[in-house]
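Input record (Table S2, row 263):
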Amino acid sequence: MNKKGDLNMIGFIGAGSIGGAVITGLVKNGYDENEIIVKGGKSSRTKDLRDQLGFKIVSKIKQLADTDVIFIGVGANALDSVLKELKDIVDGKLVVAFTGTGTVAHLKQVLGYDKVAHAIPNTPVKVGAGFTGITYSDKFTPEDKKKVASILGYTGQLVEVPSEQLGILGTVAGCSPAFLDLFIEALSDAGVKHGLSRELAYDAAIGMAIGASKLAKQSDLNPSALKDEVTSPGGSTIKGVAALEENGFRNAVIKAVDAAEGE
Ligand SMILES: NC(=O)C1=CN([C@@H]2O[C@H](COP(=O)(O)OP(=O)(O)OC[C@H]3O[C@@H](n4cnc5c(N)ncnc54)[C@H](O)[C@@H]3O)[C@@H](O)[C@H]2O)C=CC1
Ligand SMILES: O=C(O)[C@@H]1CCC=N1
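Output record (A1CAB complex):
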């Protein structure tokens, strides 16, 4: 039995960037590693992660037969072959695929099974601060959804959306950690340009991102009003905001989302 409830074994197929991040988030936040079985890929990544976290590794998908819920974290190129192999043991299980593209309809069709969901987590799941969008097939009962939520809840927020919104939600929450990392890197580059050490520049930029995000989450004000609070009349911040806009900052962000959406 898991530390937080009456759960049984869960399985993972693929423990790369996102599969590994979810497994890490689960174990580091109290999910019992003895209830996790992982079928990894060819590299040593899964074994390295197992050495840190202690879950069980198997070499074949059919060895996940005793699990209740299976999470798939392989890339798009391996997805269909994994789904086809999973067919033999899938009856009675809940399947959740982490794929950047695709639909529940496609997953159902290739797997030949109805209880399949499509989820797009983001890498902060690794520290229990993730944001995961999920679309369930219509065959998921409220109890089934509760079961998935009770697992992924260890990794942060889980939000159910209709399939037509999952792609854009996955971009806004799932691709954007890379966009924010780029911003943090650029900000610290600027700090270094003006004489800060790299270490202090990163500390300042990361500390700011954590603090500003926490404030945005807890405040009654929206981010636009929070920006207004920083921009003192005639002060330095509004000059920086003007320079960002002059260089197309807002448009660059919107275009980045358009590009990730394939537009
Ligand atoms: N990286 C991210 O932040 C996010 C990724 N995704 C989606 O998750 C999927 C995987 O992406 P990443 O984790 O970034 O890729 P990745 O390449 O880091 O991980 C994929 C893993 O699957 C393993 N694998 C391949 N074939 C396998 C098989 N037959 N059995 C077991 N394992 C197998 C590979 O060895 C690799 O470790 C993609 O569809 C991506 O769009 C979704 C949300 C966020
Ligand atoms: O780049 C990708 O395909 C995935 C989807 C969300 C984040 N990474």
